[in-house]
Amino acid sequence: MMADAKAKTPAKPAASATPVKKMGKPRNYDLGNGVYRFSRTRMFHKKALWKFLDKKTPKTVKPKKPLTIEKKINGEKNGGTRIVRLLKRRANYPTVDPVTVHHAKKAFREHTRYTRPSLVPGTVLILLAGRHKGKRVVLLKVLKSGLLLVTGPFLINACPMRRVSQNYVIATSTRLDMKNVQIPEKLDDAYFKRKREKRAKKEEGDIFTKKAEEYKASDERKADQKVVDKMVIGAIKAHPDKKMLFTYLSAMFGLRSSQYPHRMNF
């Protein structure tokens, strides 16, 4: 037998008892590029907001709950009434104050350090603060305190080894291969800590006179700088674009007009 040629029409769903309300379009809507159909002044009159200006609603005063209640007391010599508190006081009080345990806070040296994933040893950084701001330097390693150990090298842009916070550097996409560069273990936070001599007792004369202290690098610091510079320059020479890297590290970073750092790829 042949099948019926008429297509079967699907059954209509039963009409719901509660009709669904459609959300209408608001009177004032965005026409594009932040331009609205009506201005604020026009909407002020359309909504009749002038009716509600300086309209003060009366303050509703809530009755206070009574703390005491007056009770009648039998007996001729008891006064007849007595005021009783609704909330009774505690029957017993502790004789000694409870000891509050204050948990010991971690010292700053024990805090966990977080370093940005872009700050890998060998990355070329741009300094944003300090006396060497604007210079491009090479990241040697991340110290235990969370500070970055960087160097110019000194022979290229006169930036010696120094500690820098990661908040004041921009990490670029340029990186050096540091597998042959072995940073001495003594280059830690204690190595770069400034040594201050004890103040001598004031001699006779003006008590407010101050001697200007000038920092001079020690012979040990100069020798270590030469050793590290030699290894870093060797890593630069091993790079395929060594000529461009030498000029790149020696040039200062700066922004001209209509140059926006948040739109740049460093």
TrEMBL record:
Q: Which residues form the Large ribosomal subunit protein uL6 N-terminal domain?
A: 21-72
**Residue spans of biased composition, Low complexity class:** 1-21
User: Which is a Pfam family this sequence falls into?
Assistant: Ribosomal_L6e_N
Q: Where is this region: Disordered?
A: 1-25
Which keywords, in A-to-Z order, does the entry hold? Ribonucleoprotein, Ribosomal protein
- One cellular component (GO) term of this entry: cytosolic large ribosomal subunit
Instruction: Please name the InterPro entries in this protein's record.
Output: 60S_ribosomal_eL6, Rib_uL2_dom2, Ribosomal_eL6_KOW, Ribosomal_uL6_N, Translation_prot_SH3-like_sf
Q: Which GO terms describe its molecular function?
A: RNA binding; structural constituent of ribosome
Gene3D superfamilies reported for this sequence? 2.30.30.30
For the biological process aspect of GO, one term held by this record is: cytoplasmic translation
What the protein does? Component of the large ribosomal subunit. The ribosome is a large ribonucleoprotein complex responsible for the synthesis of proteins in the cell.
Name the protein family: Belongs to the eukaryotic ribosomal protein eL6 family.
Q: How does it assemble?
A: Component of the large ribosomal subunit. May bind IPO9 with low affinity.
Q: What name does this protein carry? A: Large ribosomal subunit protein eL6
Organism in which the protein naturally occurs: Cotesia glomerata
